Amino acid sequence: MSSMYSEKVMDHFRNPRNVGEIEDADGVGEVGNASCGDIMKIYLKVKDNVIEDVKFQTFGCGSAIATSSMVTEMVMGKTLEEAEAVTNKAVAEALDGLPPTKMHCSNLAADALHDAIKNYREKHGK
Amino acid sequence: MERIYLDHNATTPVRQEVRDKMLPFYGELFGNPSSAHSFGQEVKVPLEEARQRIAGQLGASTAQIVFTSGGTESDNYAIKGVAFAAEKGHIITALTEHPAVLQTVSWLAKKGFDATYLEVDSKGLVDPDDLRKALRPDTILVSIMHVNNEVGTIQPIEELGAITREAGVYFHTDAVQSFGKLPTNVDELNVDLLSVAAHKIYGPKGVGALYIRKGTRIDPLIIGGAQEKRRRSGTENIAGIVGFGEAIVLAEAEREEVYERLTLLRQKLVQGIGERIPEVVINGDPERNFPSTVSASVSHVEGESLLLSLDMEGIAVSTGSACSSGSLEPSHVLVAMGIDTVLAQGTLRFSMGRGTTQAEIGYLLDVFPPIVERLRKMSPLSASKAC
Ligand SMILES: Cc1ncc(COP(=O)(O)O)c(C=O)c1O
Ligand code: FES
After folding, report:
1. Among B201, B224, B253, where does a domain finish?
2. Is B387 a catalytic residue?
3. What's the mean pLDDT in B8-29?
4. What is the pTM of this model?
5. Is B82 in the same domain as B146?
């Protein structure tokens, strides 16, 4: 099927990794605005400075869902510092690129992750 | 997998009969109709025959039909042509127009013309009283579309046209979505200018026409070699024009039958969505909607993710309008109709055509509910988990 998206994006859209909510999350991040067409929420479980579990919920287009999924896969099991170093660009590259009009979504995914880490640090004084 | 095409408002497949009529013009009939020799003269007859067919459908005479490169050019020509001839003045249009009209009017507004954009009600209709109030002594043109491409609302053109005529102002209608699908007699509609395009009625892309009532003061948009009686220069797209002529005759022959079939299909689709998917709003006017089009706003999910999911099942639909996909703005049409902006983000347009079957709509109704459910489960918006 021809698509405006790469195979990787379509794969993550079709089978998103780590979808859902973590009830007793240690950190929660949220970015976006539903009236602009996208909201991303990232939930973290952190133990000994390592991301033990990460889940996402996204209201958004195909690339918003794929970038959310990709960012969770990239940081699962990583230290908080490693996760903080994940950039918007890195997420887009891991997906073999995004259409230019959709770059804005990948920005959201890394931003939601960083927001969740910030929330964790605030709550836990680290 | 057989793919199902439910995006006929964007464009339609060229009918075999139309293609057959066009092919000779990509072969032996290659002449330029402006040439005096036999190669030129032999393509003049089919060119004028096609013009006769378009004119006939509109209840107009051939001298009033100018061929163009499509709906966008016809809209630009009508509006800029009248504006350039008048040199200054006030133009009235509506917020739900196609960008070919809206952008043209706002461009003219930047160049010193005045513009009024009429609001619409929640069904997408212009209130004739609003038009009455907006008309001014310096108004030069009113441009209101016949059938809206995103939601299918049919504007009361006869009435809006009559009000405008009474004020002595020219009336243009973009009939790109209604030509060959609804009656479009220019005298019954009370219009002075009317835009049409071939590719929405199983004709080729890149061909259209503008009807211009006799006596209308209008400048040409494209100048050069004086084709189309100086009104639209450039060597004619003969193959396309011939295809357009064939397409309109075929469309008219089955117009009422297709209308009835679409009405039943629309009922099935609207009812099926209502029964199988909670929290969906059908946009438009149940009483004045062209039956090919169903605009459905699905709560808690975003339209493109719905579109992609349906595409994976082989079903082609659109979000809002083809022009706004890739943009982050919710559809200007839905916003003008007062639809909640978050809900507007979850809008799909299903547009059916002459070949759409009950079985295709049945298949859509089977695969659509689980797609909505899956995306709602992924969505952070509240209440989504209840579905
Ligand atoms: C209402 C309306 N006006 C104008 C156009 C533009 O026509 P075209 O694509 O032939 O330029 C379209 C469709 O694209 C349309 O739906
Ligand atoms: S939701 Fe932001 S462009 Fe996709």
Report:
1. B253
2. no
3. 98
4. 0.94
5. yes
